[in-house]
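Customer escalation, tier 2.

The customer says the design service returned an amino acid string that "doesn't look like it belongs to this structure." They asked us to rerun it and document both sides in this ticket. The original structure tokens are below, unchanged.
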């Protein structure tokens, strides 16, 4: 292998992923090392950092994720890039994503109880209706569409509006907010401002008036800081107050009505906690699905025999969705921080070191998946880590699967063929494997 530092620099550079994930590089590193040191040179919007350990094997990734005592989400947050100031670090630590037990357990417990069987059943019915109407709209329009924007993007926005209790006319805010947070490395997404406030509710208009403007270099403030997303937080605070005063049947109304006075409990969810949960759902709840759906389409476009088979055998769609998630892997990496001296894959890791798990690599580990680079809907892909593992396993995994199954059932059941109409345009990011544009042509 070429100079190791040069190879790992390629993995850290977000522009690498505009072409695609360098899976061959990951495979070589996974087989030869299992864990490698990656430098953090200065980049636009990303100051020089101390570097991090990149964990590549499925077994080691799983072990890190299920051991929060040794590998903390709280110490430095879960993004590779360190928060810029102590205040920024304190801010990200208030999010469930960046908590360790028992604080994490309390919020997760209350949130899990809000997804009652009745609420989930209602959501599943709504998801099916959204998928049907999205395909209705596609079939009523031109036969060439941008599947990433016109098909994939709207489903998670509609369903998140259902989960969060956001009025449907405000769902475009979720699109802009998730773009700004997840796409901060991509100039097309970092300043996303597609939402028209005149079409939104009064709380949307009040919130968007607080939206920060780009600086002279065209950059927005860090979206992981409260100052970087004042419009989101103002909207969430107003929405949370309304949910508490005028509860409806949505998940967030159920959450705001709960009390938790047990071990680690502290009564009701506070408005500040609601704001941070809103941020998490609006961003994380959007992006895995928004990139998983076009990723699945990319797989079907490149494997026409599989597309034919799923059209003839729609009962195979649930298994195909698992393989899509494994093969595409929308979230490529997540960070932990070592709380003590430890060892991973024979490599000493010091207390305080950043430990970054590579889902992109783990989901192609040949020790777990035979012929891992192949897209094979006959395999049992359920060992994939696209939704994480351990205490932070994605609470919305079931709902994401339901949405993907619903949309692919509609797409394949109501068209006779879908084919590429151009090359996909990928997101510039070393975190999300995203698709910004996916031109396709469909046949009735």
């Amino acid at each position: 292998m070429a100079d190791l530092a040069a190879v790992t620099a390629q993995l850290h550079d977000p522009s690498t992923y505009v072409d695609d994930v360098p899976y061959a590089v990951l495979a070589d590193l996974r087989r030869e090392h299992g864990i490698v040191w990656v430098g953090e040179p200065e980049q636009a919007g990303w100051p020089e950092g101390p570097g991090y350990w990149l964990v590549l094997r499925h077994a080691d990734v799983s072990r890190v994720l299920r051991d929060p005592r040794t590998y903390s989400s709280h110490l430095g947050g879960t993004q590779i890039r360190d928060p810029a100031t102590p205040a920024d670090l304190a801010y990200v630590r208030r999010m469930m994503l960046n908590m360790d037990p028992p604080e994490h357990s309390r919020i997760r417990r209350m949130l899990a109880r809000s997804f009652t069987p009745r609420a989930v059943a209602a959501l599943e019915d709504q998801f099916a209706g959204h998928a049907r109407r999205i395909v209705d709209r596609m079939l009523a329009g031109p036969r060439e569409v941008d599947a990433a924007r016109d098909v994939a993007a709207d489903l998670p926005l509609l369903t998140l509006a259902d989960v969060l209790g956001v009025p449907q006319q405000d769902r475009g805010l979720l699109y802009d907010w998730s773009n700004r947070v997840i796409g901060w490395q991509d100039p097309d997404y970092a300043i996303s401002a597609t939402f028209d406030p005149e079409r939104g509710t009064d709380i949307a208009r009040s919130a968007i008036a607080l939206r920060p403007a780009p600086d002279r270099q065209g950059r927005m403030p860090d979206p992981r800081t409260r100052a970087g997303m004042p419009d989101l937080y103002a909207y969430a605070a107003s929405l949370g107050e309304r949910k508490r005063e005028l509860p409806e049947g949505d998940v967030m109304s159920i959450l705001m009505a709960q009390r938790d006075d047990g071990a680690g409990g502290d009564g009701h969810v506070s408005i500040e906690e609601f704001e941070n949960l809103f941020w998490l759902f609006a961003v994380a709840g959007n992006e895995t699905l928004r990139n998983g759906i076009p990723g699945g389409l990319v797989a079907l476009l490149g494997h026409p025999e599989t597309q034919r088979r799923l059209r003839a055998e729609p009962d195979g769609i649930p298994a195909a969705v698992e393989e899509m998630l494994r093969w595409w892997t929308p979230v490529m990496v997540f960070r932990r921080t070592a709380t003590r001296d430890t060892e991973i894959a024979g490599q000493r890791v010091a207390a305080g070191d950043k430990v970054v798990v590579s889902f992109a690599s783990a989901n192609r580990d040949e020790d777990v998946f035979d012929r891992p680079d192949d897209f094979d809907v006959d395999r049992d892909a359920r060992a994939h880590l696209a939704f994480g593992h351990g205490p932070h396993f994605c609470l919305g995994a079931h709902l994401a699967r339901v949405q993907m199954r619903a949309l692919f059932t509609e797409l394949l059941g109501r068209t006779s063929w879908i084919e590429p109409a151009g090359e996909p345009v990928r997101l510039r990011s070393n975190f999300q494997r995203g698709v910004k544009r996916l031109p396709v042509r469909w046949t009735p």
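Tier 2 assessment: The sequence is consistent with the input. The chain has one domain: 4-443. Residues 4-443 form a domain with the Cytochrome p450 fold (CATH 1.10.630.10). Sent an explanation to the customer and offered a walkthrough call.
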